Amino acid sequence: MGGMDLLDSLIALYRTKIRSRKWHHKIVLHMMDFTLVNVWLLYRRDCKDCGIPKKEMYSLLKFKAEVASCLCNERKVLKKRGRPSHNVDRDLAEKKHRGSSSSVPSTHVHQDHTDHWPVWVEKKGRCKYPGCKGESAVIKVCHVPVLHC
User: Fold this and answer.
1) Can you tell me the distance from the alpha carbon of 116 to that of 133, in angstroms, rounded to the nearest whole number?
2) Which of the 8 DSSP states describes residue 125?
3) Terminal C-alpha separation, the chain
4) Cβ distance 147 to 129 under 8 Å?
5) Angle at CA 124, nearest 5°, toward 122 and 126?
6) Lower CB density within 10 Å: C or N end of the chain?
7) pTM higher than 0.70 for the full model?
8) Which domain of life is it from (predicted)?
């Protein structure tokens, strides 16, 4: 009984409050608080076992804030917005040295803003887009097989 009283009192210290009419939101947040307090208690026990001084241990508030900031920043490193910026000529040179391939038009032809409409063909060809390893049955008018990368 003493463990549950401790858990309830620690949850009550920094409860995640939400004003919602949906009952399942409150249950999910209570389970999240419950889990964080249990993990914090395990963290304190492991710190004591490793001989870490109490001054260097996170308080419950700091621990919850650290977990929240890690969850908020979890995808920020991997996610990039906008069109990828890379050197097409360098990537094409890297792809060419791997083996023989059909000719690839220069960057000037790629970026001339004229109609390079897709044409569907029966024979598939390896995609010439840098970084792509797929095969495509679609070629552009400049006779370069491309996937929709």
Assistant:
1) 21
2) E
3) 59
4) yes
5) 160
6) N
7) no
8) Eukaryota
